[in-house]
Amino acid sequence: MARYQKSKVFLHLAALLCAVGSISVATMNVTCGKDFISILVEEEFFKYYNVGVEAVHLVNASCRAHREEISGSAYFTVHTPMDQYTACGGKPLEKNVTHITYSLTLMSDPPVYGNIVRDPVVQIEYKCIYPYIRRLSLAFPIISFSSERMFKVDEVDAKVEMSLFKDHTYTEAFTSPPTIKLGDQIYVQIQVTEPEDFFHLKVNECWATQTPQANDKSGFSHTLLANGCANDKTTSFGNGTPHPAGKNGEGSTVRYSFDMFRFIREPHSFYLHCTVHLCTPEDGRSCIPECKTISKREVVVNEQAQALLSYGPIKRELPVRSNINLLTLVLPLGVIWTLGIFLLILISIAKAGIRRHMTNT
């Protein structure tokens, strides 16, 4: 099993030059850490091109190299924490089913002689490849709680993701199974994340079950979407947001919402399942469902381009029960009894006074 910490890759690569000329071989030491990437390059390589350490940096010039001596040898080195990868000019992540690749470029400013430049700029690209299955253990990137499905459409690998968001802005996704009050809205987003903006996405069916199994008939189920159209009176697409995404079949992202509910019998929590269909740009119109007519248009679909996504459990937030304070009941009764006894004493004193007065007269 691959290890991130202390995993070192020794490379002997030719530096990429911006001008035609001789090529010097650079001996590099790249360390792919769990939350950092670092590179060491022998100082002699940069001396060949008359480059000092003060002129060496990443794409973002603020991420600079420094000189370090190790076992009597001098190196130029750059240490890049993962949370600074993008800021330092790291290239967009390359992903496949099994691995994720980070790419950085070490470069130099051209040496200037008066008003001219004679020496070429040095550029060295280096990469770290991590097992994609371990992505959750990496400090970067952060993966939200979601349901993902990878499948192949016409020899193109496509990834579809379903997430639940906290409000209608669709800016903050739940990072753990959500707990929602009855009557509050649930905001669902289903999106083609790879490749971006190529396929059109249609959500065919969405339903809720009491168990994680989508086709489990042992418990209750409730249908939210059928044939790409709302089948629940509280379900709506897009939710009126200004974002163009949302309408079913018109883009690579579908958003819909519905009111939280519970089943009449335990368990009250439920799992959400959706079948999705991908359309190529050529057949994009066939992705748009006709929901205003009673009889839906029957469309022949490519079975290969369909997938099932499941999410859950979605739990019901129980109402807060107010604790009855017995003192609030005992105190008034005690006051009443005290007042009653006090009144009886006053009445007895008054009667005794009247009898004495009558006796004296």
Could you explain how this protein is built, in words?
With 361 residues, the protein is mainly beta. Helices cover 11% and strands 40% of the residues. The chain has helices at 43-48, 326-360; strands spanning 8-14, 16-17, 25-32, 36-42, 56-57, 66-70, 73-81, 94-95, 99-108, 112-113, 116-117, 122-131, 147-153, 156-165, 179-180, 185-194, 200-209, 221-226, 229-230, 236-237, 253-259, 270-279, 306-316. It is flat. The relative contact order is 0.10. The model is unreliable at 1-23, 133-144, 294-304 and 326-331 (pLDDT under 50).
The average pLDDT score comes to 75
Instruction: Name the overall outline.
Output: flat
How many DSSP E strands? 23
| Helix/strand/pairing category | mainly beta
- Runs in which pLDDT lies below 50 for 5 or more consecutive residues are 1-23, 133-144, 294-304, 326-331
Radius of gyration: 35 Å
How are strands sequenced across the largest beta sheet?
15-23-22-17-18-19
How much beta, percentage-wise? 35-45%
Task: Provide a concise account of the structure shown.
The chain is mainly beta and 361 residues long. The protein has helices at 43-48, 326-360; strands at residues 8-14, 16-17, 25-32, 36-42, 56-57, 66-70, 73-81, 94-95, 99-108, 112-113, 116-117, 122-131, 147-153, 156-165, 179-180, 185-194, 200-209, 221-226, 229-230, 236-237, 253-259, 270-279, 306-316.
